[in-house]
Write a structure and sequence with these properties.
Blueprint (H helix, E strand, L loop, with lengths): L4 E4 L6 E9 H6 L3 H8 L2 E5 L2 H9 L19 E5 L1 E3 L6 E3 L6 E4 L4 H17 L4 E4 L7 E4 L4 E9 L3
Antiparallel strand pairs: 1-9, 2-8, 2-10, 3-4, 3-7, 5-6
Length: 161
C-alpha cells in the first residue's frame, strides 16, 4: 500500500506558503548507473532532535506511543531508511534523503555523507524541470502527493496587501 497525503489550505495569511515538490524518481534517473548501484546499497539516518527541545520550550510533551512501525515508539524521532526507495507498485526508483531531517548517510565518512547530501540538494535546485510549485490561491485548495517519492518544502512568499 502506498500512502497518499493531502494538504489543504484553510486560510490565507499575509505570508503565502506555496509548496514545492521535486521528483525523487527524476533525481535517481539523473544519476549515472554506477552511482545508482552504489546508492542502492546505502541507508540514511533521519533524525529531528530539535523537536524535543521545541516541545519542552513550548510546554508540551511529544507523543510517545506506537506510531506505525513497531520500533517507532518513544520521543526519540529517529529512523533509518534506504537512500534509494523503490515504488512497490511501479518498481520505479527514487532518491529519498533530501532535506532538514537527514542526519547522515550510513556507511560512508562524514565528509562523503555531506558531499552526497549537498549533491542531492544541488540536483533539486539546479533542475527546475523536476519540480512543481503549487501556489495556494483559495481557502479549501488541496494538494495530493505520495511522500515517499517526492521531496516537498514550503516556500514563504510575501504577499502585499
Amino acid at each position: 500500500m502506498v500512502p497518499i497525503y493531502l494538504v489543504k489550505v484553510t486560510n490565507h495569511l499575509p505570508v503565502s506558503a506555496d509548496t514545492l515538490w521535486a521528483s525523487g524518481y527524476e533525481l535517481y534517473d539523473r544519476v549515472s548507473e554506477p552511482y545508482q548501484k552504489f546508492l542502492e546499497g546505502l541507508t540514511v539516518t533521519f533524525e529531528q532532535p530539535g523537536f524535543q527541545q521545541i516541545a519542552e520550550k513550548a510546554g508540551f510533551t511529544l507523543y510517545d506511543k506506537p506510531r506505525g512501525a513497531a520500533e517507532n515508539v518513544g520521543t526519540e524521532l529517529k529512523a533509518v531508511h534506504p537512500v534509494v526507495r523503490t515504488n512497490p507498485v511501479t518498481g520505479w526508483k527514487s532518491i529519498f534523503p533530501v532535506g532538514g531531517h537527514v542526519k547522515h548517510i550510513n556507511g560512508v565518512t562524514d565528509e562523503e555523507s555531506s558531499k552526497l547530501l549537498t549533491w542531492f540538494l544541488d540536483l533539486v535546485y539546479r533542475n527546475h524541470d523536476l519540480q512543481v510549485r503549487l501556489k495556494w490561491q483559495n481557502p479549501g485548495d488541496i494538494g495530493m502527493y505520495i511522500a515517499c517519492h517526492l521531496i516537498h518544502m514550503q516556500l514563504f512568499v510575501l504577499v502585499r496587501t
